[in-house]
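Encode chain A's predicted structure.
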Amino acid sequence: MKDKPLVIIITLLGGAVCSICCILKRAGLLWTLLATFITLLVFLIIGLIVNRFYTEVKNEVIAADKERERIAEEERLKREEENRLREEWEAEHPGVPYPEEEAAAEEATEETEATETL
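Encoded structure for chain A:
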């Protein structure tokens, strides 16, 4: 319902343009009423179509924002869990590197050795 002013504005602008054109051309009253009525109907339909597309795009943007927020929250929770596990490991095993850091150091060593042999 918040998007209804868009339809109203489009319809009224079409009616205003039609009325101004009829006044400038000095059209008769019956012709002016008929032309304005048809113009209002046409622009009402155009406004409803525009409103539908606008609503769809807005809903897609909202859904994409929610998905980005959900992914960011999941990543934040993973980082927090990783930090908590690392702190627990360091508290239980002082001086011993965290297994993930150890594996990363071994991979770096293997890569260095592989480049040295080339």
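The radius of gyration is 33 Å.
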